[in-house]
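Design a sequence for this backbone.
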């Protein structure tokens, strides 16, 4: 079963909705970063949410970054997505281990208190930036609060990641539902009643529901129309040249020290952990380019 995003409208475009299956995406992230169970869930939820947010952008070159900056032991999350359903991301402390809370992975405890920041680069002079206070650190609640308060688009976000016994990803996915300013009261009431009565995203995932079936529950009785579907995946566009910028940021003095020590170095891409080797000759070349 492949990963994809579904885009839909309901009630004559008074509602727009997105749903995703992101099992392979989240499992790929887990393998790249060797994440602990709670980190897999936290990063997986944010990757799934950002993939759907990316699909809302208009131009193929638009890029969106969401940072979760909390005081919990995971030390923060960063995810970047594009308009084509591609995302990449990392947790600052991917190995964090926490006891479960109420029988569930304690994502909120791992994230802690802090802020959620959204930066959208849409090719304009100044990128758009919005920031809101984390509500629960469970990611879905925090994105709901962000949409409603920063973008002023009342929304409901549900995200879930289920793990197998050996801590690989069994399934991942979620939905985002947004209402337009002109929504009729009875439509809004029906939507709210649906959201109050549906099972959790994790429950839907456990039942192997497709993104279409998830939206079918959320938008039950609201004349849902599927607009299109889009592939989605974990994808990192790093290269030796791009990672070089991270070396340059270390500083000339430190690079010179590495050259003097005649030790080749290895640098990992933040977003996908791919290791790049730099020989002493490479380091000399980098130094020369700085002069
Ligand atoms: Zn990378």
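Sequence:
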């Amino acid at each position: 079963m492949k990963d994809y995003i579904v885009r839909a409208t309901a009630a004559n475009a008074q509602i727009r909705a997105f749903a995703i299956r992101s099992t392979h995406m989240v499992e790929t992230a887990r393998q790249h970063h060797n994440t602990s169970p709670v980190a897999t869930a936290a990063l997986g939820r944010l990757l799934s949410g950002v993939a759907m947010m990316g699909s809302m952008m208009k131009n193929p070159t638009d890029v969106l970054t969401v940072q979760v900056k909390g005081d919990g032991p995971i030390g923060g999350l960063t995810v970047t997505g594009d308009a084509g359903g591609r995302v990449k991301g990392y947790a600052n402390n991917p190995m964090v281990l926490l006891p479960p809370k109420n029988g569930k992975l304690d994502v909120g405890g791992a994230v802690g208190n802090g802020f959620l920041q959204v930066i959208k680069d849409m090719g304009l002079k100044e990128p758009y930036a919005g920031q809101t206070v984390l509500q629960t650190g469970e990611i879905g609640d925090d994105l709901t609060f962000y949409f409603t308060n920063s973008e002023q688009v009342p929304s409901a976000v549900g995200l879930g990641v289920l793990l197998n016994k050996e801590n690989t990803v069994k399934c991942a996915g979620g939905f985002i539902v947004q209402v337009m300013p002109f929504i009729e009261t009875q439509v809004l009431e029906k939507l709210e009643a649906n959201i109050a009565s549906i099972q959790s995203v994790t429950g839907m995932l456990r039942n192997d529901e497709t993104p279409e079936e998830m939206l079918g529950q959320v938008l039950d009785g609201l004349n849902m129309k599927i607009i299109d579907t889009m592939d989605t995946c974990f994808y990192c566009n790093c290269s030796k040249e791009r990672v070089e910028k991270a070396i340059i940021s270390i500083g000339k003095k430190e690079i010179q020290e590495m050259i003097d020590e005649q030790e080749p170095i290895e640098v990992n891409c933040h977003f996908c952990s791919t290791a790049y080797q730099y020989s002493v000759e490479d380091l000399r070349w980098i130094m020369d380019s700085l002069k």
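The longest strand covers residues 169-179.
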